[in-house]
Amino acid sequence: MLVGNRRSTARASAAPAQRVTVSLYEKPPREEMTLEEFEVFAVDRLKVLRTIDALRQKGFKPKELEAELAPVVRELLPLAAAGPQAPSDARKDSVSHFILRLAYSRSEELRRWFLTQECALFRHRLSRLRGDGFARFLREHGLKFEEVPDSERDARVSSLARIKNYENVPAQTATYYRVPFLEAIDLIGRREVYLEKGYAYVPQAKLHSIVVSRFRASLSRSLAKASGSLAAAAADPRLGPLLTNVEKHDLERQDVDDDDVEGITPEQIDALADQSMPLCMQQLHYALKRDHKLKHWGRQQYGLFLKAAGLSMEDQLRFFQAEFTKIMTHDQFSKEYAYNIRHRYGKEGKRTEYSPYGCYKLVMDMAPGPGEYHGCPYRHFDADHLAAVLSKTSLDAGEQSLVLGKAKERNYQIACQRHFEFAHKKQTVNGKKVVANLDGVGNHPNAWFKASRVYHQDLHAAEHPEEAAAKEAEKAKGIAAANQSQVEGMVLAN
To answer: How far lies 489's CA from each of 355, 480, 484, 485, 486, in Å?
Structure first.
C-alpha cells in the first residue's frame, strides 16, 4: 500500500463497476492513497468496531445486534453488491481492515479485541447476503463445501430432524452440507449438527458458523504475522504517528451528557464516592484519602472524572490541596501540582479542554504500576484483590460471584455493568417505580456516576414526594422568571 502526501486519485476508483461480495482479506491492497484517506478510512472502521463492542457489552441478542448495527455499517462502511459505488466501497473496506490489522497487532490484548469485533462484523455481513449471495460468496472464495444430495438427506431424515433447528425448516426440505467434523466443533458442542463417520451434516443456515470459524483462524494467524511488520511501518515518519493515533483515536473524547445533574462540591465527594462512584474511581478516592496523594496517572484519571462530574477548577484545587497538604506544605502543592489541575481545565499550556477517560482506555491503555491505583479494577486487580474489594460493597455473595465471573472471563465492562445493576435495583416506592438508566454504564465512568446520581435522586423524590413537588414548583418558578426577564430584555432592546 503506497501512501502519498498529496491528494491523488486511487487506481481502484477508476475501475469499472463490478460485483463485490464479503471479503476474506487474503491479499493486502497495493495502491496509492493519501494520508487523509488512510486516517479517515481507519477511523470509520474503528467506529464500526467500537459500536459492535458497545452493543455486545450491553448484552444485545444476535438479532437485536444485527438491527442496531445495520445503519452504522451502512453509513460508515457500506459494501455495495453492484453499481458505481461498488469498487470504492470495496477499496475502503479492504484498506481500512489492513490498516487496523497492523495497528492492533501491537499486543495480545489489542489483537484479541480486534479479532472479536472483526469476526462479529464478518458474521453480520454474511447474514445480510440475499438470494444466492451466500452460495456465490462460497464459490468466489473457493470454499468448497459438499452439498448433501436429496437422496442422502432423505435416508437420514429422522436423525437430522432431531438436531436443533432455530429456523423451523423441516428436515425433509432443508439443505445440508457435509463438513469434516473438526470444522464444526462449536456446532457439535451445541448439538446443531448430525455426526456420521467423521462428518458433520450442517444445515445451510448454520454454515455461516463454519465460515466465521475459518475466518477467525485465518485472521488470528495474520495478526500474529502483522505484529512482526509493525516496527518497520511505525518507523516511517508518515505512517508511524497515524498508526499510533488510529489505535488511540477518540479514547479520551467519549463525551458524557451531564445535563439534569447538578455540579458537585468538595464537601459532597466523600458521600458520593460511597454512593455513586464506579469501582475504579472509588479506589482512587479511597487511596487519596488514605495516602493523601496520588501518582500522575491516578491524578489525571480522577481529576478528569471529577471535572466531568461537575467539580469546578477552583473547587478541584481546593479538594486536592486539602489532602496533599496533610503530607506537604501549601507552597510545595502550589509549585508541583496546582499547574496540572489548571491544565486539565484548559487554563494552562495549550489551553486544551481535556475529556475524561472512557472505559476502553482504562482497560486497554492504563495498567497501573507499583503504588498506583488508576486503570480498571476488573482488568488490573487479581482475583483475590478484586474479591476483597467487592466484599466491601453493597453486593451480596451471589452478586459478587457473578461479577467476579465476568471479570475472570475477561468481560470487564460487562462485570462493571452487572455491578451497577446489582447496586441500583428496580424499586417501587410509594407506588412509584424507580429504575436506573443503563445507557453508557460499562462504557464510561462518568456515565455510571450520572446514572447513579439520577437513580438516587429519583429514589429520594419517591420517598419524599412533598419535598420533590416543592422543588419542582421552585424550579418551574425560576424558569418562568428567567423567561420573563428575557422577554423584557427583548422589548427594551426593540
So the answer is: 36, 14, 9, 6, 5
| Element containing residue 176 per DSSP (H, E) | strand 176-180
- The residue written with cell numbers 438470494 in the block is 131
Quote the pLDDT of residue 489: 55
CA distances from 400 to 415, 445, 451 (A): 10, 19, 21
- Distance CA(126)–CA(363), nearest Å, equals 30
Query: What are the tens digits of pLDDT across the range 218-234?
Result: 999 999 888 887 777 77
Distances (CA, A) of 49 to 55, 62, 260, 300, 459: 10, 15, 31, 27, 36
Per-residue 3-state assignment (H helix, E strand, C coil) for 139-164: HHCCCCCEECCHHHHHHCHHHHCCCC
Rg (CA), the chain: 28
SS3 state at 3: strand
CA 96 to CA 242: how far, in whole Å?
13
Burial of 215 (0-12, 13-18, 19+ CB in 10 A): buried
The closest of 52, 54, 188, 179 to 125, measured between CA atoms, is 52
Burial class (CB in 10 A: 0-12, 13-18, 19+), 416: buried
* Cell 482506555, residue located: 361
Angle at 40 between CA 95 and CA 34, to 5 degrees: 70
What pTM did the predictor assign? 0.56
Q: How far is CA 212 from CA 21, 136, 183, 477, in A?
A: 15, 16, 10, 60
Name the H helices within 325-366.
330-336, 338-344, 359-365
Q: Any idea where the domains of the chain sit in the sequence? A: 2-129+217-248, 139-211, 267-463, 466-494
Read off the pLDDT of residues 18-27 as tens digits, 9 standing for 90 and up: 455 789 999 8
Contact yes or no for 102/233 (Cβ under 8 A): yes
Q: Give the torsion sign (CA, 313, 315, 318, 320).
A: negative
**Which range is least confidently modeled, 44-58, 288-302, 313-327, 382-396?**
44-58
Closest CA to 474 of 466, 462, 485: 466
For residues 103 and 272, give the distance between their C-alpha atoms in angstroms, rounded to a whole number.
39
Q: Is 5 helix (H, G, I), strand (E, B) or coil?
A: coil
